[in-house]
Amino acid sequence: MFQDKITLTPQDILEKEFKIDTRGYRLKEVDQFLDDVIGDYEQFIDIIKKLQLERDELLVEISNLKRELRNVKTTIDIAKSEDREVTNMDILRRVSNLEKIVYGKDE
User: N or C: which end of the chain has fewer CB atoms below 10 A?
Assistant: First the structure.
């Protein structure tokens, strides 16, 4: 998901070579900084993967809850209709609700 927006990978940072001038940076400091950057990138990638898994699990849970809510609404409609005389409209409503359950159409 976000992987295509990240320019550098930890390996790219690790393999980066700097040109050295006589007044260049201290190699030890550059290496330490790059080690910190690599660690951060690895953490970002792990966080992104965990969040994507959590999102996928939540989407499945939402789908299950919607299905359960639809079933409860159908049960309530059936219970309400049992209290009065059954009409053709009630039968059509029940058939419609059953079709939604069987074919999995979301409202």
Answer: C
